[in-house]
From TrEMBL:
Entry-linked InterPro entries: MeCpG-bd_2/3_C_dom
GO annotation, biological process: DNA methylation-dependent constitutive heterochromatin formation; negative regulation of transcription by RNA polymerase II
Protein's name in the database: Methyl-CpG-binding domain protein 2
Listed GO CC annotations: nucleus
Methyl-CpG binding protein 2/3 C-terminal domain sequence ranges: 17-107
GO molecular function, one term: methyl-CpG binding
């Protein structure tokens, strides 16, 4: 029932074993149930997105706060009911466009750098033949 609790306290790390900072959840997304925290909520939402194609609406019953074992909708993560507004979607689209632009710039810089390196190597090889 509360499988996400098993993941509590675990963190992802990179190849240098540095702990990767977890993402910040939107302010409107709040966990419910015993010992609810952002890490557990993130695990529950990620799992719900991964395992089901149904929309995520959260727990719609206010009684879930009193006794989650009885009033729990098991097809939804342990979070309060929430609504995604058009403004939320617009802000996310803007963030995605900004990140895509940065990625495009980084890829172009990499391509130009590789082209310059290749050109330098060709010049060095040509001058070495003489």
């Amino acid at each position: 029932l509360f499988w996400e609790k098993r993941l509590q306290g675990l963190s992802a790390s990179d190849v240098t074993e540095q702990i990767i900072k977890t993402m910040e959840l939107p302010k409107g997304l709040q966990g419910v149930g015993p010992g609810s925290n952002d890490e557990t909520l993130l695990s529950a939402v990620a799992s719900a997105l991964h395992t089901s194609s149904a929309p995520i609406t959260g727990q719609v019953s206010a009684a879930v706060e009193k006794n989650p074992a009885v009033w729990l909708n098991t097809s939804q993560p342990l979070c309060k009911a929430f609504v995604v507004t058009d403004e939320d979607i617009r802000k996310q689209e803007e963030r995605v466009q900004q990140v895509r632009k940065k990625l495009e710039e980084a890829l172009m810089a990499d391509i130009l750098s590789r082209a310059a390196d290749t050109e330098e190597m060709d010049i060095e090889m040509d001058s070495g033949d003489e």
